[in-house]
Amino acid sequence: MHFETRFSPGDRVFVVCGAEVRHLTIGQVRIEHTDSPGLPFPQGDIQFDNYKPQKGHVESYMCVETGIRAGMIYKLGEDVFETEAEAIAVAEKRKTEEAERVMKRKIENKRNMKKSVRDAQKSLDYRKAELAEVEKAEREAGNETG
Length: 146
Known about the structure:
Elements: E1 12-17, E2 20-36, E3 54-63, E4 74-75, E5 80-81, H1 84-145
Antiparallel strand pairs: 1-2, 1-5, 2-3, 3-4
């Protein structure tokens, strides 16, 4: 079996790190190639995905500047690009998606805060009503004895 990779050690590439684009040097190439027919099960349905037929090819890289073996792993087409323009487009998309996630979290937190305040107000109103009933019962009991 023979594999060809898009980049080789020593190649300079554009890598999207979070929402930042960096120009880095490939130091290690990793290939994960899967082509499994799966296992036949007489019962029919397979409970676990790892026994089902699978195919896949993932090409990933480690860069000199971010560490080999104990550094970051970057995937071709997701993080590693030949041109800066491709990498910038992905970085901008990630920034937009992150800003949307942050905004959704803020809105959800605000909703939760409002609900907590409403729940606390209901609890307080209930306690006040309970206290008023106790005070009324005490007053009535005092009038009966006095």
